[in-house]
Structures are given as C-alpha cells and as structure tokens.
Amino acid sequence: MNKTLKPIYNALMTIICFTFFLCAATWLVLSLTPIYDVLAKAVDIADQTGYSFEICQKNYNILIEYNMFWGAQKLVFPDFIMSEHGEIHFMEVKNIFVGMQIAAMVCAPLTVLGYLYGKKKGALDWLKWVIILAAAVIVTFGTWIAIDWMGFFVTAHKILFTNDYWLFDPTTDPIIWILPDELFLVCAALILALIVGGLVACGVLYKKNCGKKKAKAEK
Questions:
Q1: Taking Cα atoms as reference points, which of 61, 90, 55 lies closest to residue 73?
Q2: 26, 46, 74, 125: least buried by Cβ within 10 Å?
Q3: Considering only CA atoms, which of 63, 78, 54 is closest in space to residue 31?
Q4: CA distances from residue 35 to 56, 104, 182, 183, 203 in whole angstroms, order as listed
Q5: Orientation of helix 181-206 relative to helix 125-147, angle to 10°
Q6: Is 50 left (phi over 0), alpha (psi -120 to 50) or beta?
C-alpha cells in the first residue's frame, strides 16, 4: 500500500471498526429485553412502583420495540399517559438508537472488507489503534461510571439532547417509574463489556497476522 495512503487508511479503519463495536454493542444490549426482566425482579419493581411486573414488562417491551429501526413511528403506552415533552424526548432517543443501528449495519461489512483488504496488503496496523482507542474509552468511561454514575448520566444527557425534556415529571410521564437507574447503569456496564470483547477480538487478529509477520522478520 502507498505510504501516503496507509495512515489515512489506518485512521479511517480505526474509526469504522470502533464505531461498529460501539453501535453494535448498544444495539445488542438494547435488544436484550430479558435484562429488564431480571433487573425488575431483583429491585422488586412491582413493590417500588405499585404496577404489576407484567404491566412494567409489557410497556418496557413496547418502548424497546419503538426504538428499533423497524419500530412504530408513534409511541403509545397502553397503561401510561405521556406528555408532549415526553413524546418528543422518546422520539429523539429513537433517532439516536436508529442512527446507531444503521451505523452498525454499514460499518460491519466495511470492517470485514477492511480486514480482508488489509490482510492482503499487509496493512493491519489499524487493529492496534482500535485496541488503544477502545481501551482508552473503557478506562475513561468505566472509571467515570464507577465513581460518579449520576454525574455521567446527567452529562451524557446534556450532551446528547438540546433540551431538558429528559427530566421527566412522574405525574405527566409515569413511565419513568418503571425505568430504574439501575437499568441504565447495567446497560452501560454491558456495553463497555461488549466493547472489551471487540478489543480482545482485535488483539487476537493483530497477533495472528502482525505477530507472525514480526516473527518472520526477526528470523
């Protein structure tokens, strides 16, 4: 590969691969509705909210289905009222999640093709940079979440949204009662854990390809 193009290629592939890991991990965790079932029972959501587990589960599943790219365009909870601000916020959340799902679908084949092309051309240094980037993200955000989860949660919302509609009033948007803080914390931890999995995969591929090349060069 041309020496001038190689750094550009490495930078581009680093961004594409990491974007895939982040978006795919988020999509997978979002799709795993059993996470809610386990957590809701663990915190005794029925006792905390006054709503039966079945009602909480049903409305949560509707919310998750809405956030998929194939989901309904309008969110309707069968058991809860919703304010205009609440509807707008959920629509903004859907746009973010759908965007990440599309990004994951686009970046997945690009990552595979980039790996196959890089393997053929001996240009897989980007795997090392993905490892470094992923490790930096995991350590930075993992530490922040462990030390100050609420600070992370609030900051993330202030960055992602241009309004304060995410500050729900339970009297107008009672759905917030069935979305405990523990749910968001567990989901954030699982996303980071899946990114670790991606980091390990990159490490294995890098060692398999670049490690052999280095060993041959030393001989």
A1: 90
A2: 74
A3: 63
A4: 13, 21, 11, 8, 29
A5: 160
A6: left
Which residue has 């795993």 as its token pair? 32
Tell me which residue has tokens 């052999």.
212
Residue 166 tokens read as 């995410």
Q: Tokens in use for 63?
A: 């919310």
Element (DSSP H or E) covering residue 62: helix 53-66
pTM of the model: 0.92
Distances (CA, A) of 55 to 14, 38, 79, 91: 43, 15, 7, 22
- Residuewise pLDDT in 10s, the chain (219 residues): 677 788 899 999 999 999 999 999 999 999 999 999 999 999 999 999 999 999 999 999 999 999 999 999 999 999 999 999 999 999 999 999 999 999 999 999 999 999 999 999 888 999 999 999 999 999 999 999 999 999 999 999 999 999 999 999 999 999 999 999 999 999 999 999 999 999 999 999 999 887 655 544 444
Residue closest to 171 by CA, chosen among 108, 107, 45, 82: 82
Residue listed under structure tokens 């759905």: 175
Number of residues assigned to the chain: 219
Give Rg (Cα) of the chain. Answer: 21
